[in-house]
Amino acid sequence: MIPKIDLSVIEKLHAQCERRGVGYGLGAKADHLSDGPDKFSHIDCSGYIRVLLFHATNGALVIPDGSQNQREWAEKNLNQVGRYVDAASYMTGNRLFICFIKPHANGCGAVGHVWLLRDADTGIGVRAETVESHGGHGPNSRAWNTGVLIREVYSVFELPTA
After folding, report:
1. Is the full-model pTM beyond 0.70?
2. pLDDT tens per residue across all 162 residues of the chain
3. Using the 8-state DSSP alphabet, how is residue 41 labeled?
4. Going by fewer Cβ within 10 Å, which terminus of the chain is more open, N or C?
């Protein structure tokens, strides 16, 4: 059984990474899953998601490293959502999705990607937004319908939340 994810922990760690200016580095990981944002200066997408989920479950969820290994884990352990746009359209404050781009699928090149999709209530309505670490930025958030994500998304799974 997959432990429930505490969304407030994800929000807190994500904000800390953004404030600290943690950068992106292909293949960059936290030395230890228990490391917080003060312990790494660069992190790739799969390393970032792995650390966030570990902390957001108080160490109870340890997923594999590498976005394609994480996708295979999700396929075996989580409920898949039909389409990416479906996840965004029924987003609420207590739902969380893990999304994947698969290498050499849907126009993607040789490198895949993983990110979380969550509610970002702006006060003028609910809209879905990413939690991710990606090239050129490191940990940050983008609108769910950013062009590259819409074009290349391969699969989406719902994560249980507290």
Report:
1. yes
2. 899 999 999 999 999 999 999 999 999 999 999 999 999 999 999 999 999 999 999 999 999 999 999 999 999 999 999 888 888 787 887 899 999 999 888 878 888 999 999 987 655 555 789 999 999 899 999 988 899 999 999 999 999 999
3. S
4. N
